[in-house]
Amino acid sequence: MGAKQRERIVRYRQLSFIRQGGRCYYCNRRMWERSAEHRLDAMRRLGLTRTELKFRLCTAEHLQRKADQGTNARKNIVAACFDCNQSRGETCPTVHKANRYLPEPVQDDPEIKQIFTRLKNMGPRTAPAIELYAKAKFLRTAQLARELGMEVAL
User: Can you give the pTM of this predicted structure?
Assistant: First the structure.
């Protein structure tokens, strides 16, 4: 890959980072853009350790993989955290996003909001994150069931 093409991809990644509000296309976690922010400042802003920050590094992700005749066109490049970019493999972008996306809570339930806030600042593959995600999913399911007038055993 030539220097001009690499510069173009970096620019598209930066534009995607801005368009996506600094959040990963797949998991919706806040990311770190190396060219715009010093590592120590990002660690403070995100409340992460140096090791955790590595997984939040903003990378250029090709929606249609280059191996599948994807191009370096602007519409084919989104900003994704290092962790999501590396874990996608051959998975379809829509499926990968559905498996990793952390939406905002449905309502202002303080317990669910607190869990999602903690999840967004945690590595997705850690045991505490998996437990928190399961708890949040259960609480949201219970919340929706109550709204529909269904009995929920907690």
Answer: 0.65
